[in-house]
Amino acid sequence: MDDYLEMAHSFEAGKRRCEILRIIVRCPVSLNETFKEMHRGKSIRTHLYETPKYKGKVTMSAGKLILEPHMVQDLVEHTLNGAMDHLKSLFQNPEIKDVFTILVVGGFARLALELIKQSFPEKKVIVPECPEMTVLYGAVIFGCAMLSLR
């Protein structure tokens, strides 16, 4: 479980910077061993090299997975498209159809920004300086407010 959490954290940290360079995720030895057991001794590195879907998009070097920015975009595209569909359905609601500003926060904010602007050109899109921390700040403010109500 620790290996999984470390990989997830590494991916999340890289996701925030994907518009700059590629994402580098530490790949635990246990993952490669499990992969070999499940794929008749083939390593992750060999699999990535031999699979056209990943060739040139994901590589492995020195125990790290290296994902090119367009590969990260492919990985999150399904989630982003689902979010866009949900926003479109929300803006069909008469109660909020006149909302003209979208505040984009969270870990996907930077990845979703261009898609949101393209999908809603008539809306003003605001992204805080540190969108992934905005959710945390809001949770802390909410928690403090709840404590003061007691």
Describe what you observe in this structure.
The structure is a single chain. The chain has helices at 2-15, 29-38, 44-50, 69-90, 109-119, 131-149; strands spanning 23-26, 58-61, 64-67, 101-103, 124-126. It is α+β, with helices and mostly antiparallel strands and 150 residues long. It has a 3-stranded antiparallel β-sheet with strand order 1-3-2. The protein has a two-stranded parallel ribbon with strand order 4-5. The chain is extended, with a radius of gyration of 20 Å. 8% of the residues are buried. The model has no long low-confidence stretch (mean pLDDT 83).
List the helices and strands and how they pair.
Blueprint: H1 2-15, E1 23-26, H2 29-38, H3 44-50, E2 58-61, E3 64-67, H4 69-90, E4 101-103, H5 109-119, E5 124-126, H6 131-149
Parallel strand pairs: 4-5
Antiparallel strand pairs: 1-3, 2-3
Helix pairs in contact: 4-5
The total of helices stands at 6
Secondary structure: helix percent: 55-70%
What is the strand content? Answer: 5-15%
Silhouette: extended
Order of helices and strands: HEHHEEHEHEH
Rg: 20 Å
Strand order of the largest sheet: 1-3-2
Intertermini distance: 37 Å
What is the number of beta strands? 5
Mean pLDDT value: 83
Which stretches are low in confidence, meaning pLDDT under 50 for 5 or more residues running?
Answer: none
Main sheet record? 3 strands, antiparallel
Q: SS-based structural class?
A: alpha+beta
Number of domains: 2
